[in-house]
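Lab notebook page, bench 4
Experiment: in silico fold of construct C2
Operator: M.H.
Input chain length: 176 residues
Purpose: comparison with the prior construct
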Amino acid sequence: MGQGTVLFNNHNAGLVMVGSTPSRPVGAGLGGVQLAYALAGYGTPWVAVSPYSAQGRIMEANPNWFLSPVIGSFTAPGIFDGGTLELWRVPENHPIDYVVFAWTGRSPTFDTALISGGAVGISEMFTTFTGTAGNPVNIADTFGGMTITLIPEPSAATLALLGTGVLFRVRWSRRR
């Protein structure tokens, strides 16, 4: 029995968008995507962790999930094409659950995009079947798209409140 395969791409009905309101497709030639997958129905639900966590930490929270190789930049606005992926430890014609990691910028990985302050995100979980070596299943048929966002920075009010707290703490400790 062979390994299960998928055609790792998307189409206009499942774009990768960046920003909040209004969002726009990730620019062509930028960012990257990576597939995380697990056998469906084997007690391996995806555990949502903050998308602003390191990928290793996210995967630690999701044992029995595997990562595909990183797929380079978007081929068209919001569109990626990772070609055929052979999924390790997944048989042909078997259901899988999957999520997509995506990021913008010139970073080669999710973690470097996270460190450099690029927009990052993880899709919702979707389910599909795998295909055979000569007939991969296209995940574009089940991928509903996603929106990735910049790492949120604290607001001016939060920083002012934090600064005021530090100032009072320093002054209080000097009075002792």
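Observations: The mean pLDDT is 88. The helical segments are 55-60, 110-116, 156-175.
Next step: discuss at group meeting.
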